[in-house]
Predict the 3D structure of the following.
Amino acid sequence: MTALFALATSLLWGLADFGGGLLTRRVPALTVVVVSQSIAAAVLGAVVVATGGWSEAGPRLWFAVAAGLVGPVALLSFYKALALGPMGVVSPLATLSVAVPVSVGLVLGERPGLVQVAGIAVAVAGVVLAGGPQLRSAPVQRRAVLLTLVAALGFGTVFVLITEASTTVTGLFLALFVQRVTNVAAGGAALYVAVRRGAPALPEGGLPWTSLPAYGFVGLADVAANGTYAVAAQHGPVMVASVLASLYPVVTALAARGFLRERLRAVQAAGAGLALVGTLLLATG
């Protein structure tokens, strides 16, 4: 179950990142975050009401609030780092987020076997290579590296917090709803400040209604990924769940290949293959 839900997480996050990346080419990143998360919050609110999730309210929801505050900071840092580029360096660096839940797993006493250790090493190497690292002729600003490290720390922290936010399925719905409402509040406040400083909130011509399904997909895929990761981490080793969930850059690269006809470089194809081998080692270890 852990492997299945963690792989579902990587698929959902990979597709959400792909969709979000396309949207931010035309619309400011803050607007993408606020609109997509608002749609997700509305859907989750309906689910919570339908399932009676309000009965699960308790102190654990503070973990969801914390995740909701950390998430937008991490996402915006990541987008800004991508803007500074090069993406071939920024994207693989962001996979360092896996270090946070892996460290937590070690502190909690998890001790993977030799096969799983090998799987973790191979999978992480594959993810880095699949990102298409540019080791030559790729000047990197210190600010881009710093922002990427902030994003990685934030993403990893959200991994840990959302796992602690609930212990039941209905409680998970409520925790995800609280997280999204906090996301919208934090992102909306940041967007308000940005607009007051003169930054545009919308592209010229406004936000077309026909694009709302795309925003909804990004927001709901992100929510679903958080949910499947929480289930994976609660039913198995956190280290295995976090490493398998970190395969999302491979999914993003493959989506770009399939939908945008972007050609994978040899190093990216090799990385995808290594990630698959690492996945098999983790699943069988």
